[in-house]
Design a protein that fits this description.
Layout: E1 11-17, H1 21-34, E2 40-46, H2 53-60, E3 65-68, H3 75-83, E4 90-94, E5 98-99, H4 104-114, E6 118-126, H5 143-150, H6 153-156, E7 177-179, E8 186-190, H7 191-197, H8 209-219, E9 223-234, H9 245-262, H10 265-319, H11 330-349, H12 359-377, H13 388-414, E10 426-430, H14 433-445, E11 451-457, H15 463-466, H16 469-475, E12 477-480, H17 484-490, E13 495-499, H18 505-515, E14 520-524, E15 530-533, E16 542-545, H19 555-577, H20 587-598, E17 602-604, E18 622-624, H21 626-629, H22 639-651, H23 655-677
Parallel strand pairs: 1-2, 1-4, 2-3, 6-9, 10-11, 10-13, 11-12, 13-14, 17-18
Antiparallel strand pairs: 4-8, 5-9, 6-8, 7-9, 14-15, 15-16
Length: 684
């Protein structure tokens, strides 16, 4: 390490951030509150985010030292970059999707001062639903420990000292223990130990570096501790997608690297062989789980519609044509699959399978698919045109059966049949009158649906002391926070919104742990335009915000854009081959069309360079840009104009916009080609 500890700075906090601006803002607010009575320096290393994180840090947190990178360095390398600049006696590696308590830093500092043998420290973590995160305390991943975790034995026997040494399930989460491995989400490190053993190994890009560093701390003769006297929230899903194949691949590759680094001989070979086996096993499990999650509802719809169509076919043949064998076998092999393709394809592109499932997109999608099917019916060969009436009856059955299925699914979860009613969950706000009104205004502007039950005071004092009776009636103050559990039960509350300005993070985590995962929890950071929550440790966080919503991130618009890319790429090759419209396209465009087909590029992308795209949803590089639609070269437009073009393209995106830009690009190319080939040609 280049920099030496400075006697005046007790702690250096390092946060590595990547596209989690709203969570980063909340994390920094909590850090600044917790650091008020300590000498602390804070570093944020931004790994080339495109969501405006660097600008937010510069504007709202000028006291933070921002290191904005031009590429994604990975977790280890980015942390090391800040650690080398740090001057604190201790180093805290902190994830941006965390919320620490006001006393977390002081308590950890005191513990480390009282335990000179401690090289590192982790704390008790809960997720966004109040559930304890078992990775708060972990054991060393020996071959047997890794085997038990990979093949589910640790989950089957969560309290076993033999089968669950990975998460040390036999140790109480409410007591401080010596452990093997610390979590990189909150990793408190003694600077002198880092100077002795070295920094994070930069060969680990995202996972495994915390295991490696924890192991080296123990190997050097120091101890790692799980500290249970403070609790933080780790939203988890914002930095990890454990169900993805990418996670499986990167995590287990990190384990292979760890084994190659620390094991020798036969033990290393066996461990590495097992890890490779685990990669394939977990990849298979992940693929199967993702496939089931994606296709179970379309499969049920397919079965319902197909079964109904077979009944309708037999009914129509018998009672209309008076011939049970009127329809040939080709109906099963050709017509029925084609009908299902139109109906379910329309439902898919209409957004019927986007979560949360809604009846509106399903109805629109099925009707649109039916219109396309009826339009295409006239082009079917004569031997496949059996009856339009059967298509109409099939459309009616598709609507009734799929809506009925969703009605049953809705009832099994909500215990009511209000399928077409918007979700009207009951929520309470815990905060002062000023913050409560601000939060309600944010919810109104964000068009967040819900039934406001009332506001709970954050401190134990009487309502009469808080404000006049007229204001109490208007703001619907229900009582004091010490009776929050009663209010949740009496008013059948589904969601709690905590105002972080008025309520310490320690009390927020306490109530989340007490009330449990049956409720949804959100936190309104002070002076923020967003309200943050997370309903699962493996899913992205949920966000209410009045900031700009980009149409291009809508799942339906993303599908339409990709469908357009594929359609045009597939159509490009025969068009270019036969030189239809005399395009005379050069060879490089053939290669670019192939890249579009593979998903490496898009026909339409942002204009300019990365600085003109900051704060916008990421897109594949485009062959054409919004600047081309104006007939101007990007080089002739300033960065502000380019950013505005990109901004409005993403904000107001529709598939017709891509077609318009592409058409203008083709016209521009044809005009420039004609002008180049006939510079002196006069009109006849």
């Amino acid at each position: 390490m280049q920099a030496k500890g400075c006697p005046g700075i007790q702690l250096s906090i390092v946060i590595v951030s990547y596209n989690v601006r709203h969570f980063l803002e909340q994390a920094l607010q909590a850090v600044l509150k917790a650091a008020q009575n300590m000498e602390v320096e804070i570093f944020v290393v931004d790994n080339n985010s495109v969501d405006g994180s660097p600008a937010m840090v510069r504007q709202k947190f000028p006291q933070v030292e921002l290191l904005a990178m031009n590429e994604n360095l990975g977790f280890a390398k980015a942390n090391n970059l800040a650690i080398r600049r740090a001057k604190g006696q201790y180093i805290l590696l902190l994830n941006p999707d965390t919320l620490i308590a006001e006393d977390s830093l002081q308590k950890c500092y005191q513990f480390m001062e009282e335990h000179p043998e401690a090289g590192g420290l982790g704390v008790r973590m809960i997720d966004g639903t109040g559930i304890f995160l078992p990775e708060s305390k972990r054991g060393f991943p020996s071959p047997f420990v890794a085997f038990c975790k990979t093949f589910g034995l640790s989950r089957l026997f969560p309290r076993s000292p033999l089968f669950n040494r990975y998460h040390l399930g036999f140790l109480s989460e409410n007591e401080t223990h010596e452990v093997d491995v610390l979590s990189g989400a909150y990793m408190w490190l003694r600077r002198s130990v880092l100077e002795e053993i070295g920094l994070l190994d930069e060969r680990f890009f995202m996972y495994g570096e915390d295991i490696d560093l924890s192991y080296r701390i123990v190997q050097a003769g120091y101890k790692n501790y799980y500290f249970a006297d403070t609790t933080i929230i780790h939203y988890k899903g914002e930095s990890t997608r454990k169900g993805s194949l990418n996670y499986v691949r990167i995590f287990y590759q990190a384990m292979v690297l760890f084994a190659e680094k620390h094991f020798r001989g036969r033990k290393a070979r066996w461990y590495i062989a097992f890890i490779h086996l685990a990669i394939y096993f977990r990849a298979l499990v992940s693929l199967s789980a993702n496939a089931i999650r994606r296709i179970w509802l379309p499969l049920l719809d397919t079965g319902l519609i197909a079964g109904g169509m077979l009944f309708l076919k037999n009914f129509w043949a018998r009672y209309h044509f008076h011939n049970p064998d009127y329809y040939p076998d080709t109906f099963y092999r050709i017509n029925l699959p084609v009908y299902l393709l139109f109906w379910l394809g329309g439902a898919f592109f209409g957004g019927a399978y986007d979560r949360p499932y809604k009846p509106g997109p399903l109805i629109r999608g099925l009707l649109f698919g039916s219109l396309l099917l009826m339009a295409a019916y006239g082009f079917f060969p004569q031997e496949y045109r059996f009856s339009r009436a059967l298509i109409l009856m099939g459309t009616a059955w598709a609507l009734l059966s799929t809506l009925g299925l969703r009605l049953l699914l809705h009832f099994s979860k909500e215990k009511n049949f209000k399928l077409f009613s918007p979700p009207n969950h009951n929520y309470l706000i815990i905060g002062s009158k000023e913050e409560s009104r601000r939060v309600r205004e944010l919810l109104h502007l964000a068009k967040a649906e819900g039934n406001y039950i009332g506001t709970v005071l954050p401190e134990a004092k009487t309502l009469a002391q808080d404000q006049p009776s007229a204001e109490k009636a208007n703001d619907n103050y229900l009582g004091q926070i010490d009776r929050l559990d009663e209010m949740v039960r009496i008013f059948k509350v589904d969601e709690l919104i905590f105002c972080s300005r008025d309520l310490p993070a320690e009390r927020i985590t306490w109530w989340m742990s007490k009330l449990g995962p049956s409720l949804n929890y959100r936190i309104a950071p002070e002076k923020s335009l967003s309200i943050i929550g997370s309903h699962s440790k493996n899913l992205p966080g949920d966000l209410y915000t009045i900031e700009v919503q980009f149409a291009i991130v809508d799942p339906r618009q993303k599908r339409f854009k990709r469908l357009l890319d594929l359609s045009l790429a597939l159509a490009f090759f025969p068009l270019a081959l036969f030189q239809i419209l005399q395009l005379k396209l050069p060879f490089r465009l053939w290669a670019q069309a192939w890249q579009v087909l593979r998903g490496k590029k898009s026909w339409i992308g942002y204009a300019g360079k990365s600085r003109e795209q900051e704060g916008l949803p990421p897109l594949k590089p485009g062959l054409c840009t919004p600047a081309d639609a104006l007939g101007n070269s990007e080089n002739k437009l300033d960065s502000t104009t380019l950013h505005r073009l990109n901004f409005f393209y993403a904000k107001d995106y529709r598939i017709g916009k891509d077609l318009e830009i592409l058409w203008r690009c083709l016209l521009k190319k044809n005009n420039s080609t004609t002008s180049h080939e006939n510079p002196n040609k006069k009109p006849s």
